[in-house]
What does this fold into?
Amino acid sequence: MKRIPKNRPTELSRERKPRLAGFALAILLCLLAEGALAAQRALLVGIDRYRPADRAVTTARGKVPAAKSWVDLRGAVNDSESLRALLLQRFGFQSESERVLTDGEATREAILTAIREHLVEASAPGDVNLFYFAGHGSQLRNTASSEMDLLDETLVPADANRGVSDIRDKELRTLFNDVLDRGAELVVILDSCHSGSATRSLHALENVRTLPPRFTADAADNALAEDGRGDPEERGALVLAAASDGELAREARDSSGRYHGAFSFALLEALRTAPSGEPVSQLFARVRALLGRAGDTQTPVLAGPLERRGRPLFGAAKATNASDRYFASLGPARGELVDLRAGTAAGVFRGSELVAEDRPGVPRLRLRVEHVDGLNRSTARVIEGRPSTVRTGTLFRVERWAPPAGGALQVALPALVPPALRQELAREIPSAAGVDLVDEPRAHYVLAVEDADDAPLLYWQRRAPEASDLPPRSDGVPEGTDNLAARLAAYAEELAAARTWLRLDPPADPGHFPYRLILRDSSGGRLVPGGVVFEGDIFELMLQREVSAKTRPVERRYVYVFVVDGRGRRTLLFPRAESGNAENRLPVSVDGAGPPLIPLGNTAIEVAPPFGTDTLVLLSTADPIDDPSVLIGEARKTRGGSWIDNILEGVGSSRATSRRKAWAIERVALRSMPRS
It folds into this structure.
């Protein structure tokens, strides 16, 4: 199951047909790109000056005193100029390929024209384009929007104080898709509200980069978003945003007194120290750590395909494995202890061992986790190397995963398994977190084989009667496949993770989030709480408020919905894996008891063969999961890996000011059947 727009419903099916035309086009574009040297170009916008000279002005936001309506910034121009210099000095950009608009130059028309001329019309296949904006962000009501909050996020141009309209996200989406249509790459960096050297530091946070939303006007327009091309981040664009929607992006001063956006400052510092070819996933892990060092609570967002996150920010170097997890230190070592931005959300438990990425002249550094504090934070002790070499943003990868406390999934090998494969599995299965190899009578699953067209398939078959709530089988691996034992061990690990999600009981929830997951029949609007569904049925995902909740105020939560299918695989349905924590904090606004029904994005699911039982899982948390893609849980094809067990045990924020254990989980089982 995968998330796609409502006009192309998700099928409750595991089969996908090849798309040869798209594949051939991709090959053609690659050949064209190799035939010429790819160009790099950047459009950088920084706006500090918003306040008009008049004491009172009449604008699209109404007639209000200028001092109360418009707030100047202090660091946006600094950020754009600093990034321009860094692109020239470190990343090979040429001065003629950069276009910079600051303050009064950055009008609405100038920005849109520059995107069309400099990024769209000049692009060729393989080119790398960057759009950077630092300035105010805002929101505009749009009752025709397909977004849940009926608000368009906007960038505020310099001439907005003269009545000119903001630049809406739907306008940018169209232009960014035009860039992608030309076969070029696109990187978008937004340091505004509602967007989504190691010795230097930011002082106390001061300004915020936001202007009041426009709720009196209504764009009432969704045509720009419905052109059939989808969102740019789903098509290959990479988007880095200073804050998730609804959050404030802040400014602060560095040690020399210069103002910067807190996010841009962290990004610039990470880029200055980035090793050659560092993939975006690692770069962004360091940005998050550096941003937290400044004491900021905004949640930066990374959106884009996993494959793109495995390549450098500006370039087309060979991708690394984007599913590999890297975790950043939150500061220098405290004696022998190191605070990490790593927790149960990524399967890091007490006893896990991590090693630092190799750095020239720095001895090997190894840590062992001693305490896990919720979703995104843990404390480890240095067991090899010098603690003094740890800096804010030092990256670590897990070399030895430690399973959580509790019973493991038990698998067995029947007597007919060939001795060579038996020996290999006996070596591999101990590396699968949460899986034990036992005698057959005690096993939840046993290794089985089925005939297939090309070669027999080996898979794990559910056996124990008390495991009837678990997936009936795993995926299959053809006999003779390279690393056969490692693949089977990875699928056993996947079943173990599915078992966790299907049996996990949450602790007492101190918050109040009175919503339950429900399906709405797209044909007649009928609400379906689960149970039997039939081939061809199409449903929309919804949250429904409990009737008894009308008298209590509602707490906003980060919402995640994924499916565990009949083979133990997990697929993230909401939010999109490519989008990070975007528009998934619900309800959008807290007004009394909250709305009775909340649609979850623009997703539909369609019932299709093969039939069986799928389980939808709703997870709501007071604090966000840093990277929602960890919920996808694809099986690894190599040794090691992690699974998520008691993922939110002791859940707390990585923010020192908030350590709440507020989370909840709900499961909705769907049994699909053919329509007779």
Residues 416-503 form one domain. The chain has ten helices and 35 strands. The chain has a mean pLDDT of 79. The chain has four domains: 38-309, 326-400, 416-503, 515-673.
